Each structure stands twice: as C-alpha cells, then as structure tokens.
Amino acid sequence: MSGKLPQKKFFRQRAHSNPFSDHHLDPKSPAEMDWSAHYPAFVCEENPTESSFDMPTKQVGRPLMKKKIEFADLGCGYGGLLFSLSTLYPETLMLGMEIRVKVEEYVREKIIALRLQHPGQYQNISIIRMNVMKFLPNFFEKGQARKHKARVITNQLLAEYAYVLRVGGIIYTISDVKDLHEWMVKHLDEHPLFERIPDEEVEKDPVIPIVRTETEEGKKVERNKGEKFLSCYRRITN
Fold it and tell me: Rounded distance, CA 220 to CA 117, Å?
C-alpha cells in the first residue's frame, strides 16, 4: 500500500441506487458480525474466557471488540462526514453505510490511505456496503447507536431508527430541498419515540457545523450558495 489517496473522479456513480434490490448483499445478524477487520486497533488484545461477561462486546466465534459502533452515517456518500468526525471523536467507532459499489470502494480505499499517512488516526471509522432500507437491524443491537445521520425517512425506517438508537441518541437530518425537509420533519414529529431538539440546543452541538459543511450535499450547496434545512431529534423513552 502506497498510502496515496484515491481520486474521486475514478469512483463516480449515479447518485441513487434501487434500495429495494438486494444487490447481492449478505446481511448478518449483529451477533454474527465480525468488526475486527474494520477496526483492528479496537480489537481486545487478550482473548477472554467464556465466563468473562464483563467485556464491552461479546460475539460468539468472533474476536472481541473493545467498543461498539456508536455513530452511523446512513447513505454516507463519499464519507466527508466520517472523515471529519473521526478526528473530533477518535475513541468513538463510526460506520458509514452506502449502497453504491464504487462509492463504497472509494471511501474504503481512502480510509486505508489515511491510516497509512497518519499512523494512529482514522482507526475508528469504516464503511460497509449495505441496504439501509432492508437490513439496518441486522447490523446493530437494540439501543446501540448514540448518533445517527439519516438521509431517508419513512415510517418503517423510523421504527428501525428507534430500535437501534439508545434513549437520548440523536438523529440528524439535513437537506437542501425544502419539501423533503418538511416531509422528514412531519414524520419525525408524528413519531412517539422522537422529540425535536430546540434550535438553541442544536447550535451548541459540536457535530452540527460538520453536518452542515462536510457531507457531499453540504459542500455542493455551499458552492452554489444554496439554503440548508436542518432538524435534529432525540430518541425518548417508550
């Protein structure tokens, strides 16, 4: 590996894929997922015995991990949010989920290159190619995630977001399309397990400037001097 960053122009793909196609994806249950190849720096150094129930994560037949994934970027695109958040929260495991083959490949190669260029950094981020609209609960345990950036909002997906988010966890939504923003707000407002976070509280969140400026959509809107519509919701108790 040379550590040379991939060039995005060689990984272009149309902006959307059919989310109702499996795309030959191989979903696993959370207990079957082996995250050690994604986050090798966070693999437990010692192999505890079966009686060691106090370990942070335990997966039958899999290497034990020191931590679980807490940030999820659904439809992460070219990974701008992941790369920026990685250095802001270096001890938090983050996962990008992307359905487009070339885009996922670009992000994966960039992560590898950045790890080589900056030893000890970017070990906490990874990407997986998966269909969020069909298989999200197969990758996360109940209440596992703490922060969650979503591009797609439907009633079914909100039930799944509520499942994977811990109480107090946050959904970040942002769009440059007002109608889409209003659609997402409407459905989140109507859901009994989410409450909107007041704007004054949102603005104090250190993640917000990155959500606004580091995603591909955010950068495009910034270049075009367009408007961005942001809303954040907190997972509340049942």
Answer: 27
Tell me the backbone φ, ψ of residue 174, rounded to 5 degrees: -145, 140
Give the three-class secondary structure for 81: helix
Distance CA(178)–CA(51), nearest Å, equals 53
Neighbours of 37 (CB within 10 A): 9
Tell me the residue type at 184. Answer: M
Residue type at 77 in one-letter notation: G
H-type helices in the chain, by residue range? Answer: 80-88, 101-117, 132-135, 155-164, 178-190, 199-202, 208-213, 216-223
Residues in contact with 205: Cβ distance below 8 Å, sequence separation at least 6, in sequence order = 170, 232
76, 153 contact by CB (below 8 A):
no
Give pLDDT tens digits for 107-137: 999 999 999 999 999 999 999 998 888 888 8
DSSP-assigned beta bridge partners for residue 230: 174
Burial group, residue 151, by CB count within 10 angstroms (0-12, 13-18, 19+): middle
Distance separating alpha carbons of residues 35 and 23, to the nearest angstrom: 21
Higher pLDDT pick, 159 / 4: 159
Evaluate whether 125 touches 111 at the Cβ level (below 8 Å). Answer: yes
Give this prediction's pTM. 0.84
Does residue 38 contact residue 67 with C-beta atoms inside 8 Å?
Answer: no
Q: What are phi and psi of 95, to 5 degrees?
A: -130, 130
Across 159-198, b (16+ Cβ under 10 Å) vs e yields ebbbbbbeeebbbbbbbbeeeebeebbeebeebebbeebe
